[in-house]
Amino acid sequence: MKHKKLLMPVLRRGSFVLLILASFIIQFTLLPKAGISASVYLLIPVSVCIAMFEKEFSGLFFGLLVGALWDLASPVTDGSLALFFALSGCMAGLLTHYLLRNTLLTAIILSFLQSVLYTFILQIYFIESFSFEMFSVLLKEHYIPPVLLASLLSIPVYFLIRKLSGIFHSELFSRGQ
């Protein structure tokens, strides 16, 4: 029984790592090869939803993994995305543990907010001179679609992570007693 109590969290977190790696491959390898023109922030709802179910410290480390992978795929960033995703994973875990309920609406809102913050980071990194005309074009064509898509993708991701988390929790509690 003691071995199962130790094994189930390892298996649950290992499945989350595999889900992050699969999302990374889909976001940065498969979707660009499929010719999808809009950016898809698949890793954002994955990191938010994992942090919601794993709480603050695990959310920090899963966010760090997501950010490190995103930094690895991005030619411009210098590790700042790892810090950003680690802090946002920790915040999502803290918010759902102490302040908000762990619901689908919370996942959508947190994914939306993290996507918006990420687009502002993109704005800081890639735009040297600011003009409202250029910003409005970029906002309509490059920033709003990925933010809305990340919010919509948080729906199936939330249910997938809830199912994975429930499988390992129910397995632990049903056989442990």
In summary, what is this structure?
This protein is 85% helix and 0% strand. With 177 residues, it is an all-alpha fold. Residues 172-177 have low confidence and may be disordered.
Tell me what the structure shows:
Helix content is 85%, strand content 0%. It is mainly α and 177 residues long. α2 packs parallel to α4 (104-126) and α3 packs antiparallel against α4. The longest helix is centred in the last third of the chain and has 45 residues, at 132-176. The radius of gyration is 17 Å and the shape is globular.
Number of strands: 0
- Discrete helix count: 5
> Strand share of the residues?
under 5%
Output the helix-strand order: HHHHH
What value does the average pLDDT take? Answer: 83
- Give the low-confidence spans: 172-177
Distance between the termini: 9 Å
**Largest β-sheet summary:** none
Structural class: mainly alpha
What integer value in Å does the Rg equal? 17 Å
From the spread of the alpha carbons, the general shape counts as globular
Percent helix among the residues? over 70%
Per-chain topology:
Layout: H1 2-33, H2 43-73, H3 80-99, H4 104-126, H5 132-176
Helix pairs in contact: 1-2, 1-5, 2-3, 2-4, 2-5, 3-4, 4-5
Q: What are the salient characteristics of this protein?
A:
177 residues; mainly alpha; globular; disordered C terminus
